[in-house]
């Protein structure tokens, strides 16, 4: 079996995303086949989504529900899907995980709507892009975006 097939057949995978300082953060998630790639589903405000917005570098490994006994990690690139892609991932989750998947999706819908969730496409073996949401400085080095507080201070202090 190929790594894609092994991971897609697994009930849970350990999705590892990376903080700004490079620290790895691993989270067990459900996974489905999404065309030739893989996909997971998450709440839009989840930490993993925020980390993927900064850098697309991820690793994926098979695991159990608690993230224990991970298999070999496969490097890849994660991309957030548009609303239509997220809806497709939700349908695939409902099909693969049967009643558990449907109940989880229903719970998400009741807690704030499915539009607040995102689909994340994972392409194994692809190079990741780093610092997606940065602002270039005069030196060409990517800087983090300005904070909301600095934006508000600038807005209030402008004539």
Q: Please, could you describe this protein's structure?
A:
The protein has helices at residues 3-9, 47-54, 83-110, 148-157; strands spanning 12-18, 24-29, 32-34, 37-43, 57-63, 74-80, 117-124, 135-136, 142-143. It has 159 residues and is α+β, with helices and mostly antiparallel strands. Mean pLDDT is 81; it is low at 133-155. The chain is 33% helix and 31% strand. The protein contains 4 helices and 9 strands. It has a 7-stranded antiparallel sheet. Strands 8-9 form a two-stranded antiparallel sheet. It starts with a helix and ends with a helix.
Helix content: 25-40%
- End-to-end separation in angstroms reads 64 Å
Number of helices: 4
Oligomer: single chain
Summarize the structure.
By secondary structure, this protein is an alpha+beta fold.
Topology:
Layout: H1 3-9, E1 12-18, E2 24-29, E3 32-34, E4 37-43, H2 47-54, E5 57-63, E6 74-80, H3 83-110, E7 117-124, E8 135-136, E9 142-143, H4 148-157
Antiparallel strand pairs: 1-2, 1-5, 3-4, 4-7, 5-6, 6-7, 8-9
Keywords:
7-stranded antiparallel β-sheet; 31% strand; alpha+beta; 4 helices; 9 strands; 159 residues; two-stranded antiparallel ribbon
